[in-house]
């Protein structure tokens, strides 16, 4: 079979791989960016959990302080009960004590609620920090994978380009130009088989005379429909 065909086919498979590498190289930074974004969302959530915990603890401290103040007030009012002169005054202080007790009860309830919230939030935070550790590890591993993948692709591209340039030197200039022009316009496979009289690039039939000629001479020709470089499918195995 035509040696030029072998070289063209090899060139074509290299070019198809080189195109894939270009696509993969564009995709890798996008994948990495998505990973970073996912990681950042988790980071923000974990940080937010810690902030909420701090706020709850501050709220507890405030309420406890208020509670202490109320208790002092209550004690003072109780003491004043012993010093009252009139019944009216006595009643007024009693009313005041009732009010303080109500406030006191509300504050006690608030302290309990706060403590419960803190307990829940602390659990959330410790789970969050475990999740965070796991994710940080996974993030580092995957980031390394992306970096290595990028390096591998660069290396493969370099190797293929070197091979391609050596191989190109072996192809007839006109044929190479034709091939390059076709690849620029049509992408993917531009050197295609003709099977049962049909071009496998455009899936249209070629004239019977050209088909017979293709079989008889095992030559390289152009598809009259799509201009792809065509060869007889049966010729490849021969
Ligand atoms: Zn065609």
Commentary on this structure:
Helices cover 78% and strands 5% of the residues. It has 238 residues and is mainly α. Strand 3 (221-222) and strand 4 (229-232) form a beta hairpin. The structure holds zinc ion. The site of zinc ion has 8 residues, from loops.
Topology diagram in text:
Layout: H1 3-81, H2 87-168, H3 173-186, E1 191-195, E2 198-199, H4 208-217, E3 221-222, E4 229-232
Helix pairs in contact: 1-2
Strands ordered across the widest β-sheet: 2-1-4-3
**CATH class label of the largest domain:** Mainly Alpha
Shape: rod-shaped
Q: List the domain count as a whole number.
A: 2
Rg from Cα: 41 Å
- One letter per element, helices H and strands E, the order comes to HHHEEHEE
Share in helix: over 70%
Q: State which percent range the strand residues make up.
A: 5-15%
- Contiguous helical run count: 4
Instruction: Report the end-to-end length measured between terminal Cα atoms.
Output: 7 Å
Biggest sheet: strands, sense, closure?
4 strands, mixed
Give the cofactors and ligands. zinc ion
Structural class: mainly alpha
Quick synopsis:
With 238 residues, this protein is mainly alpha-helical. It has 4 helices and 4 strands, in the order αααββαββ.
Key descriptive features of the protein:
4-stranded mixed β-sheet, rod-shaped, 4 strands, 5% strand, 238 residues, Helix Hairpins, 4 helices, 78% helix, mainly alpha, binds zinc ion
């Amino acid at each position: 079979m035509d040696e030029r065909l072998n070289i063209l086919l090899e060139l074509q498979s290299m070019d198809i791989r080189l195109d894939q590498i270009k696509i993969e190289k564009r995709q890798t930074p996008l994948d990495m960016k998505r990973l970073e974004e996912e990681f950042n969302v988790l980071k923000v959530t974990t940080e937010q959990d810690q902030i909420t915990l701090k706020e709850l603890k501050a709220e507890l401290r405030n309420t406890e302080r208020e509670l202490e103040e109320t208790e002092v007030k209550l004690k003072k009012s109780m003491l004043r009960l012993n010093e009252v002169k009139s019944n009216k005054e006595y009643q007024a202080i009693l009313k005041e004590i009732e009010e303080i007790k109500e406030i006191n009860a509300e504050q006690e309830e608030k302290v309990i609620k706060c403590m419960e919230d803190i307990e829940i939030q602390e659990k959330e935070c410790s789970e969050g920090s475990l999740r965070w550790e796991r994710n940080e590890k996974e993030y580092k591993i995957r980031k390394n994978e992306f970096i290595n993948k990028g390096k591998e692709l660069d290396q493969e591209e370099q190797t293929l380009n070197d091979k391609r340039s050596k191989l190109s030197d072996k192809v007839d200039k006109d044929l190479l130009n034709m091939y390059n022009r076709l690849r620029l316009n049509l992408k993917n496979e531009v050197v295609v088989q003709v099977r049962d009289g049909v071009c496998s690039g455009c899936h249209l039939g070629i004239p019977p005379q050209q088909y017979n000629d293709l079989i008889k001479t095992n030559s390289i020709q152009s598809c009259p429909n799509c201009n792809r470089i065509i060869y007889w499918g049966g010729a490849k195995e021969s």
